[in-house]
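New to this. Help decode both lines:
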Amino acid sequence: MSMLKTNYRWFIIFMVFIITMVNYVDRSAIAFAMPLLSKQFHMTPEDIGLTLGAFNIGYAIMVFIGGLMVDRWGSRKIWMITALVWSLSILSTAAAAGFAMLYTVRLILGLAEGPNFPALNRVVGDWLPGKERALALGNALVGVPLALAFGGLIVAFLANLFSWRGMFIILGALGIIWAPIWYFCFRDFPENSGKVNDAELKYIKESDKISRNSERETRRQSHASKPGMWKFLLTNPTLLSNDWAFFVFGYNLFFFMGWLPTFLNTTYHMNLSQVGSFTFLPWITAAIMLYLVGVISNRILKSTGKYRLARSHPLWITQLLGAICLLPILYYHSVGVALLSISLCVGFNMAPNTIFYAVNIDIIKERSGTAMGITDLFFAVAGLIAATLTGFIIQVSGSFQGAFILVIVLNISSVIGVILFHNPDRENSRTQVTQSKELAS
């Protein structure tokens, strides 16, 4: 009689989804509160840009290092520690008395959140079979747009009820509650978890041959050095075009996440509650599109076995549509046009989020944390540029027109790069050949 398979891996993905939502509510809360903070502390657009950009300085420093840390010490310890630190930085935001304090706590927040998505990628790579990874990534990463969709409403509600200081205290408590639960429930490798039976482990490993080695031995095997790994990570055309596309994705995300509330406040004179209601539609559109593209990518891969069809084509098509949808906002000054244009642009640009992560796992699973750290470094730099350059453009031009045009140009550059250089099938087959030679020797 065959053993019934447990499904503990999906509880782990649920835990990842929860902290992903907390992560993005925490990092975006200041953007929604910025109209209040900028008035109270007499901040200029340049000050706002520097404050928003401080997060990305810390994030850029730690995201690459965080990927190395996750691959070496595991997501269990690293995620627990960093979630506690970033939650304390959110709590500290409540004590801010001006620009300097806001800048400092945002820098610390960026440092602490750096390892977050390399940890997510590592968890999915180790806990899910190949045929479920895009779906699992979709389930986990949909927390990002959901957090941004409901974040404005949550921040507006809490700020109105408890003041903006009380709002930051409540948000900071969420990660502090999650961290010990994660440490208790999660193990870095499914073979070391008592909640995963042999049937589920065989399903995850896609093999009838499984072993329950000690965590130390499993980690040693998973972290064995690979010759030429760094050259592969830093020069591979598919990975580099994936990294650039993620840079553009990050620029879009941080531009809209950081500046959309201020754009609505200055252009259409919306208050905090109105901004929270307006920003719901773009991010809920993004959540739906992100989940659907993850499902579509998964099904294409299952039916064709072709990674370029499943990963590359959905990526460049959605980024092209994102650029096209932003064009009307350049020609029409209307709240309705802005709502539709921004909602579709944000939706299409968020849609391929699962693909960036899946490509790193597809091509170099054994170093998916480090690979995602490099990809996320591009993302962090994009966020820093989006936050500060947008502030500079607005300060000089007095409008958002130039900032929107730059977003369109960047999207087109990504589309060209993906069409020309993004070929996961080629790289995946090369990796398999290399691994076969290593096993044979």
Observations:
- The two ends are 39 Å apart (CA to CA).
- Residues 143-185 form the longest helix (43 residues).
- The CA atoms of residues 87 and 175 lie 5 Å apart.
- Residues 435-441 have pLDDT under 50 and may be disordered.
